[in-house]
Structure formats: structure tokens, C-alpha cells
Design brief:
- There is one protein chain.
- The chain is an alpha+beta fold and 143 residues long.
- Helix content is 16%, strand content 39%.
- It contains one helix and eight strands, in the order αββββββββ.
- The strands form two sheets. A four-stranded antiparallel beta sheet has the order 2-1-8-7, with no helix packed on it. It has a four-stranded antiparallel beta sheet with strand order 3-4-5-6, with no helix packed on it.
- Strand 7 and strand 8 form a beta hairpin.
- The longest helix is centred in the first third of the chain and has 23 residues.
């Protein structure tokens, strides 16, 4: 004789509640790790908001010019390379080369007025152009 549970739909409710809690947690993690980067280039400062990207996706560069490109990749843990990676690439004779790469942990606190990265400056060596950037957690930014 097979016994039936007293509340046959109770486990389904638990599963639905657990799935809803997991989805909410992922959404909160993504919101918590959304970053805002301020990039100074060619006499102007541009601000970009970067949400976490899946591990198998490489977002397009934020800025791309004739001599420089800036990439910011934001990944949630436990994805490989979790955290924020900022890359600056130079372009010379049709070839891209790495000028600067920095990795920041998602929980890294702000270190002053220039967010968790501090103010960074990269000089493109063949033309002498300067690029500066700093990134902060988006929730901490003034509106």
C-alpha cells in the first residue's frame, strides 16, 4: 500500500518559493555589482553603466577610436574571471595590442573619491594620447 503525503502540493510550493528566492538573489547580486565607469578621452569624460555579463559573452568595447579601445567586463561570481576587468587596447597599423589590464574584485570597497579602482591613467605610447578612468559601484553614485 502506497501512502500519500498529507499535503500533496507542499513540496511544489517549496520548490516555487526556492526558485523565486534564487531568482531574486541573482537579480540583487547583479544590481549590487553593476558598476559605473568614468572614462576621460579626447577632452571629454563619458560615463558608462556596466551590468554583469554572462561568462561566455564578451561585451563590445565601451570606447573605440583610431588609436585606443576600452573594454570593461563585469562578471558575477562564481563565473570564471568574476569581478570587473578593465582593458585598454592600442591600435597600430591595423593591429590591436594590450596597453593596460586591471582586475578588481566585486566586493572591493571604494578607496577615495575615485571609486574602487582609484584614478587610473594610461598613455598610448606611439602617439602620446592619455586616457583616464575610474569606476565605482553604481548604487553608491549620486543621482
Amino acid at each position: 500500500m502506497q501512502t500519500r503525503p498529507a499535503f500533496p502540493c507542499l513540496p511544489r510550493r517549496w520548490c516555487a518559493a526556492l526558485l523565486a528566492a534564487a531568482a531574486t538573489s541573482l537579480a540583487l547580486d547583479a544590481a549590487a555589482q553593476t558598476v559605473r565607469c568614468h572614462i576621460g578621452w579626447a577632452g571629454a569624460v563619458r560615463t558608462f553603466t556596466i551590468t554583469p555579463a554572462p561568462a561566455d559573452e564578451t561585451p563590445p568595447p565601451l570606447l573605440e577610436g583610431a588609436s585606443l579601445a576600452v573594454e570593461v567586463i563585469n562578471r558575477l561570481p562564481p563565473a570564471p574571471g568574476a569581478g570587473v576587468t578593465v582593458r585598454t587596447l592600442g591600435h597600430w597599423q591595423g593591429q590591436a595590442y594590450l596597453l593596460h589590464e586591471a582586475h578588481y574584485l566585486p566586493t572591493q570597497p571604494a578607496v577615495g573619491p575615485h571609486g574602487f579602482t582609484g584614478l587610473q591613467t594610461v598613455r598610448e605610447p606611439t602617439r602620446g594620447h592619455l586616457l583616464s578612468y575610474w569606476c565605482e559601484h553604481a548604487a553608491a553614485a549620486p543621482r
